[in-house]
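Q: I have 116 residues here and want to know how they pack in 3D. Can you give me a structure?
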Amino acid sequence: MALTAQGTTVTWGAFTLAGITSVSVDGVTADIVEVSPRSSFTRFKKYSDADYDYGTVSISCFSSGIGTADVGKYFALSVSGDSVSFSFTEAYLQDYKWSATVGDVQKVQLTFKCGA
């Protein structure tokens, strides 16, 4: 049986997830666009940031209170634990997976697509 991620707290809107076994963040990325003027005498390219992608957060837990009817909804997502703390004002529940094995606990895998 998996051990819980001691001290990790995850909330999504009014839901507080229990028995967190893993949290994975795939990272924040930014698109970069070349904005070099064609009249530039220095011949060096110039870049500017464009759209940001706040990535996805995947969470495995034993209990969530969240169900399939919540897929597509969005609320604020907050994750805090030992030496980590981050939050997103909009986190869409993109994927909900549930599994159970005879003699074992029920497990839930949640994937959130994060926005600003």
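Q: Anything worth noting?
A: The first strand starts at residue 9 and ends at 12. DSSP finds no helices and eight strands in the chain.
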